[in-house]
Amino acid sequence: MTSQDRGKYRARGRGVFRGGLDSRSLRGGFPHVSGGGGGINRSRGFDSRNTRGRAGPPRGRGGASTGPVIYAEDIPAVVPDTNDAQNQLIETFKTVSYQNKRPLRPEYGTDGNIITLRANFFPVRLPKGPFYDYSVIVTEPNAPIEGSREGKAKKYASDNTGNSDNAQEAKINVSTRRRIFQLMKQQPLLLPFPSIAHDFSHRLVSATKLPQPLEVPVQYIEEGEITPGEGAQVYNVRIQFLKELDINGIISYTEGDLQQSAHQMQPTISALNLIFQAHASHAGVRLGKKESNGESKYFFGPGETTLAPGIEIWKGFFMSIRPVFKQLMVNVNVCYTAFMTPGNLGDSLLKLNVASKGAIPTLPHDIVASMKVKAQHLGYPKQLVAIGTKTARSETFYCEEFDEKVTVENYFRRKHGIKLEHPTDLPVVSLGLINKGGKKMHKWVPAEICDILEGSPRRGKLSEKEMGIMIRHASKPPRDNAETIVSQGLPDLGLSRDTSTLDSFSIKVDPNMAVIEGRVLDTPSVSYINDVPVQVRNGSWNMMDVRFQRGAVVSSWWVLYVEDGERMLQMSSMNAIANALQESCMKSGMIIQEPVILPLETIQLSLIADDDAVRRNALKTIRDKFQQQLTNHRKPDFVVILLEKTDQRIYSGIKRIGDVELGIHTVHMQINKVINQKKQVQYLANIALKVNIKLGGINHRLGGDAMNWLMKCPTMMVGIDVTHAGPQSKPGTPSIAAVVASIDEKFVQFPASLRIQKHARNKETLDELRDMLIERLLLYKEHNGRYPERILVFRDGVSESQFDQILEEELKQILEAFDKLSKNYKPLLSIVVCGKRHHARFFATKAGDGDRNGNTKPGTVVDKGVTAVFDFDFYLQAHAGIQGTVKSTHYTVIYDDTRFRANEIQKGIYDFSHLYARATKSVSLIPPAYYADLACERGRCYLHDFLDSQKDGKSGRSASSKAVSDAEKQKVYEAATKAWGKGLHSDMQNTMFYI
Question: Please, are residues 960 and 636 in contact by the beta-carbon 8 Å criterion?
């Protein structure tokens, strides 16, 4: 996707390679874009301007302001003097015997130049007294509960007190339950207790004790109705006391009291998140996965700009309570996502029909499920269920009231006196299902009598064009984001004034951002052949007039031209392109022979993106061409694929043919980029970077003592990641896991192991890590004659709440791998989690401490002020922020036999971030973790038809809904397993095929 730190190899001129068809694809998921620049969070969401280095929209300063670039530069920024207390904390930690699991912070870092920063954290002041925790159970008092189940509230009560009664909970959907909670607070029994907050589900927190037993009757009234409808259901809401939440305990935790644990603090932290979100949960729209500690994103209308016909961009804010040393803080960050534009549904469908070239009947259900509408004849909101394939004039049903079969048009004219304007050119829509004769039938209504309500999120995967618009809109410079957080975020979230909830709990929030200490680490030196150094400036360097450390030898390579009917290259043009690439590789230090040109007969690719029959035929033609050539020639070292345009189906298919079926490295090039004379040298130089590393070469290395921290003993660096099926995937599609590991003493070559595994909700761990790691260790021994004495694991893609899960499940497999190789093999092991899904942003307080856009500089590290009290963690920004607000990576050492010192690991990771193989820039994520991420993405290509099924018109909701049976999911999983086969071709397994 988009790039802040892509390796832009600036060979000559100022052209910038944006990745062509070797760019990363969207992983899907619900697309939230955070207003601070940062990495793509996979199916978990997107951040503005990906900081890892992928292809993206045209370069520029999206959202840049023309005024000052430093936020609040005229206001003194003073760091609270806590050095003595911090030193005392470290001394206290030293009195505790060392533990390699979740090690305590050994000290704070000292290397680098000290700077003062502002952070998007706001100090919180709590009352002294306790809060009270309650479970909530909703039952139906006047009717037997058929098929009733023990509710989550009962489980919550049991989990938190060890006791629960036999109350059984009614089956109530999410929207109905939310409405019941809204009505509950208005009931006379609760009016004397305004200081309560709840999660609209099963938990309630109060500042005062509530009477017990407490059972609140709630008569259900639809939103928008004044009085209950005929036969309105009455629910009993039982509020049951669980325990006191000791506020003093969390204060002691922030003071560094070793008797307090993070696990003990979790109920209080999640309760505080409920309290803080009470205002936003009513004033805004909560979206995204709700984390275990209750942090969430809330969006507020109206839309800021149009994203596509019927779709607009909303601004929102993330909020989470964070305990730091000596202080409790609330972390607030700006984010953006897509909502349906409010207005008449019929008008919107007419616009969508034009934009989708007449595809409304197959409109992805994700869009349908996004819409909450109000029908003229009902007067209250209803969730849209489906868009029909017939019009109001052609759709019929049997009407008992009229005792005859009628059309939808006729029914609404006779029953409600509504004359339709579009009875033949708009589809009917369903507002629900009814049971007739044992069959579920849609309740069809004309689209034109429905209005889309404000606050209907646009779910599902955005198109590349839409995502580009979204990212450019969200890419605000740091000063703009900081001002938005303070001037708009705090009021919208109810944090900047005495809101009724916060005030009733006697909680105060400081309206000023926290001022903290940061440091800028010294930049390492980078060298090429004969250790010729190059100058690194702002995280970037130029490779002009230098050659690779070790150039690969290419004895055979092919160029395959896929002509799609729009333009036909002459053989002379193809030869010119091949010669230009050959020259670029040779200038970079590779030994490369002339290629074999393989022009294909014309392949007409349809302009319709989901015309898969055409693409299947195109891929068959390409495969046949490869196999035909292989009958008369030996396998080439690599093949260049010349394509006219980006097409993810074709790209993924060719990668599968090369990586899985034939065992041939493939590199994609877009013709319009390679024939651009201004950018050709730049573009081809980037291709040379990829080819050299794929074929076992070494592009560059670090100079001086930058590698000393890795040279103390034979060391293997490991990267681990997992990617999951997104909302647009077929239900049952497996997850893909990757393990990469170094095999050379220069830590350049990182071959990978790939596996698929069953996707389970909230499961991030690898099922076959033991066997994957054994593969990597055996290859290391093959290259070095021995196993490594130390293994450094960098684990990407896990949240803080999953640290213990990694230690319980993956650590066990790692140790089993050692034991399986030899009972006596016990290398030193360290595991570092690399977090990109955080919302911490840091703002320079002086122009000299930031770049021209106001972003902090590469090498900025923060381990004080907003970091964990006990954990060995730090934020490191290793790259330069090109567009938007730069985002650091949050590193946490969760297991450590090595006993790293703070300076050693902080500087070591920063230096190593300059070793990313296909870059002439430092990157935001340490390369082993980055490579694991890339390997996962490559694995997605092999299951493209399963991971991207949006063309089938199926929704993300249907993919994860209970309506999809386990048997159906198993069938998809088995089909995906068959498609995956044995995975990588044997000729690819010991290479960096994924680069």
Answer: no
